Amino acid sequence: MLTHTQLSALHRSHRDERVLSAYIDGSAPDPAAQRTWRLHLDRAIKDLRSWLDESPPAERDDFEHCVRLLEDSLTGVDPTVKAPGWIAFITREGVIDAQTVPVAVPTRLVWSNGPCLAPSLRVLGESNPVVVAVVDARKAELYKYQFGAIGHVDTIRAHHVVEPPLHMGDTPRPGFHGGTRGSTGTDASQQSLLQSRDRMLGEAAERAQEIAGPTGWLVVGGISSVAARLEELLSESAASRVSRLEHLDVHSPESVIAEAAKTGAATLRDARNIEHVHQIIDRAASGGLGTVGEAATKSALAAESVHELFITRRYLEDHAPDAESAVAKAFDQAAVVEEVSGAAAELLDAHGGIGAELRFVASEVSKVTEAERESAGQAPERADRRPRPRTKPTKSPL
Questions:
Q1: Angle between helices 57-73 and 36-51 (to 10 degrees)
Q2: CB within 8 A of 362, min separation 6: which ones?
Q3: pLDDT at residue 34 in the model
Q4: How many other CB atoms are found less than 10 A from the CB of residue 115?
Q5: 173, 18, 181, 26: which is closest to 105 by C-alpha?
Q6: In the chain, what are the domain boundaries?
Q7: Is the pLDDT confidence value at 202 over 50?
Q8: Tens of pLDDT, residues 258-282
Q9: What Å distances lie between residue 368 and 292, 375, 387, CA to CA?
Q10: What is the rounded CA–CA span in Å between residue 118 and residue 317?
C-alpha cells in the first residue's frame, strides 16, 4: 500500500525514466457504471498513441511495451475493480507497482518522465494508522484501522482481587479489634475496582500509543466516564491526535468501528490542516516561514526551502501539470506533501490552492511575496530549473 515514504522513494528511483502511470476509478456503486473506466482507459491509450506519432520509434516501442504490461496487470481487475480505486506504475523494465486502493481516484493515464504521483496524494490519508479503543470498567478493546481495513489488535482487562469483608460476628482475626471504625467491605471492593480500572486504562493508553506510533490517530469510545478518563491519559502526550466518539460500545461490530475510525481520523486531520493553513497564511503575510499562492510557492520549491507542501484537490484538477511539477520538486527536497480537504481546502483555495511551510526564507521567495502583496499576485513567475516532464493527463470522467 502507498505511504508517503514509498511515494517519495518511487519518485526518486524512477524520476529519470519514462513511466506509464495508470489510475482507475472503481467507486461507482452500480457495476454497469463502474465498467465505464475501460472506455476511458481505451480512449486515453488511443490519445497517447496519437500524441506520440512524431516521437522516436524507441519511445513508441517503450510505450507499447508498457501498455501490454498494463493490460496483463488488469487481467484480474477487468471488468470491475472491486475496490474504490486502482493504481499502477510501469516502466520498460516491468511493473513497479499495481494495486487496489481504498479511496476513489480519477481515471487517468499519463506517460511522463518519472511517475505521475499527484493523484496518489488522496490515498495517503488512509496510510496513517488509526487506533480505536472501546472501553468499559472491565476491559479495553483495541482495533487498528489502516488502508481501508479494520482488525482487532488487543484486549486489555482489569484484574482485581478483593478479600471477603469480615462480618462482625465472625471469630476475630489476630490483631483485629471489633470496635475499630474503618471502611466497609463495599467501600473496599469499590476502591479495588477503581484501582484495577485505572491500571487497565493506563495499560490501554500505553498500548494504543505503541500501536499508533508517533503520527497515528487515536479514537476513544465506550462507557462515557471510562472513555473520558482514557481520553485524558492519551491527551497527556498526544492531545492533537485524540478524538472521542459517544456512540461506540464494546459490543459495536467491526463495520461500525471502521466507520468511527474514518470519522474520527478525518475530524482530527481536518483540524490539524486548518491550523497549518492558517499558520502559513499568517507567516506569508508577515514575510515569515510560509507561502501561499502559485508564484511564491513555486519560488520556494525552486529554492529548495519547502518543509511541507499543501495542495487542494481543486488545484490538482485545474492545474494538473503545475501540480505534478510541484509535487515532484517537493519530493526532490524530502518535503512532506499533503492534499488538504474540508475547511482547510476552502481556505487555501481562496489563496491560490497551494501553499507551503518553509525551512528558511530565500531571497527570491521574499521578493515574490512582496511583489504579490503590492500587485495582487501579478508578479512574474520564476522559471523552473528543470524542464517540465512531457505529460498528457487525460480528462477524468468525474
A1: 170
A2: 299, 300, 303, 305
A3: 73
A4: 28
A5: 26
A6: 4-126, 130-252, 271-375
A7: yes
A8: 999 999 999 999 999 999 999 999 9
A9: 11, 10, 21
A10: 10
Q: In terms of CATH architecture, what is 130-252? A: 2-Layer Sandwich (3.30)
Q: Is 50 helix (H, G, I), strand (E, B) or coil?
A: helix
Provide the grid cell at 82: 472491486
Q: Give the bridge partners for 306, in sequence order.
A: 358
Residue 139: strand pairing partners:
157
What is the CA 98 to chain-centroid distance, rounded?
19
DSSP per-residue string spanning 147-192: TTEEEEEEEEE-----PPPPPTTSPPPTT--TT-----HHHHHHHH
* Lowest mean pLDDT segment, chosen from 40-44, 82-86, 344-348, 375-379: 375-379
Residue range 165-195, pLDDT digits in tens = 555 555 555 555 555 555 555 676 677 778 8
Q: What DSSP letter does each residue of 291-360 carry, written as one string?
A: EESHHHHHHHHHTT-EEEEEEEHHHHHHTHHHHHHHHHHHHHTT-EEEEE-HHHHHHHHTTTSEEEEESS
Select the CATH number that applies to the domain covering 4-126 from these four: 3.30.420, 1.10.860, 3.30.960, 3.30.70. 3.30.960
DSSP secondary structure, 354-371, as one string: EEEEESS--HHHHHHHHH
Does position 344 have pLDDT exceeding 80, yes or no? yes
Please determine, for residue 331, whether its predicted confidence score (pLDDT) is greater than 90. Answer: yes
- The fold of 271-375 is 60s Ribosomal Protein L30; Chain: A; (3.30.1330)
Mean pLDDT in residue range 105-118 = 95
